[in-house]
Amino acid sequence: MAVPRKRRVQRAVTFGSVAALVAACGARTGLYSPLEPEDAAPDVKHDVVHEPDADAAEEDAVPPIDAIVDIPVVNQCPDAGSTLIYVIGAGNELFSFYPPTLSFNSLGQVNCTQQSSPFSMAVDRTGHAYSVFSDGELFKISTANAACQPTSYQPNQLGWQTFGMGYSTLPDGGDALFVVEVHFTSPSEGLGIIDTNAFTLSKVGSFQPDLTPECELTGTGDGRLFALCLSNDTQVATLAQIDPATAKIIGADQLSLGGGQQALAFAFWGGDFWIFTAPGSQTTVTKYDPVTKSLTPMTTLNAQIVGAGVSTCAPQ
Length: 316
Prior knowledge:
CATH class: Mainly Beta
Low-confidence stretches: 1-59
Oligomer: single chain
CATH superfamily: TolB, C-terminal domain
CATH architecture: 6 Propeller
């Protein structure tokens, strides 16, 4: 996410002026030797922001996210050892990230196009990433060596040029590439699915209630799907649990993560959400525990991360 971005830079620099399951269970080459972190931030916890309960009694109020799930889901992971988060930077850098040691490992430069730069990323079960660039082009990227190849996806389907993205496990044990439309100046137009065989985009539905303009997606191995959305007007972000069949918001937590003038990516690993935010060239990695409802700054990286993906076979 060294080609200047047109729309994603707007997210990180000028966005304030206007406002998953990520999945990959597959072969990993040379990705099981995470580097030790050099400068991990102090393990200081910050409480989640609690909004007033004035409307809590209303029937249509959205409850907090429920971190306890007891619904069995068929799991068809071919490689349960795939346990790394993958992130892509605005300068086309691809890294793996290993949460237990807070270590980043450079996988190389992504050479997809000179016309645009990465906007978001998700990872599938074969060990490949899909990244949408700021001009709407969709590329397939190897998480083993950062090799890139074009896809037949036609930009601007449904009028959606850019979107956050992440894989979600389906009830039958398969998965699908979900996307959330990002328009910057108005609430998201909703949730969609990209068929990565035909490379067509179809809409699941509009969010109920609306989500703010800038959102990213991630999910878990048990079939849940989440959006993290930054606000133009406040320093509070919304972590929303989404029904992947209807796009209805079924739970939400408010997080003190800063306003919309920053790059954004996140992924679910080991029961926590790992959030990457960057108002400039340095990314802060923050862990959010959905059980204790606490945010903990963990480490930093000297790159502006704009997309993240992790296997649904990773620790839950």
